[in-house]
Amino acid sequence: MKSLILLALLISTSIMAETSTSELPVVDPISTGYLMKLTGGLLVILVLIFALAWLMKKLQLTQNSQNGLIKIVSAISVGNRDRIALIQVGDEQVLVGLTPGNMQKLHTLKKPVTHVATDPSEVQSFSKKFNQILNKEPQRDR
Question: Where does residue 98 rank: exposed (0-12), middle (13-18), buried (19+ CB within 10 A)?
């Protein structure tokens, strides 16, 4: 029984091989022309993917910034998929917690946060803060 099945498979593959070689042109997969066509096609597809991604990003930005009423002032990741964001709506700022299936208001700020410490005298270096923690020295304002 097994030999009959094996013989039938061999006969069918030989018939398929004869018909496939007579109908289809033989292309050498290592030839320079074939490799150039293959590389060119892949490059066109990659450029198309990046162009569409850029276009989608641009369309999303223009769509979100049309009215400018709601702005994300700052956001920080607190887990793999969890974030805390400070959102400004008009003159009011709201601190919200964002998870994949939920958005929860954490706090409404009475005074909007606008000050960012960019002056070097206001910003302590990481090494000074780390040494203060290790030595358990109280932090002193300058």
Answer: middle
Say which residues have a Cβ less than 8 Å from residue 72's Cβ, sequence separation at least 6. 85, 86, 87, 88
Cα dihedral 24, 28, 34, 35 in deg (nearest 10): 140
Three-state DSSP class for 142? coil
Asked if residues 112 and 91 have their Cβ atoms less than 8 Å apart, the reply is yes
pLDDT digits (tens, 9 = 90+) for 71-122: 888 888 888 889 999 998 888 899 999 999 999 999 888 888 875 555 555 5
Give the chain's count of helices (H) and strands (E).
3, 4
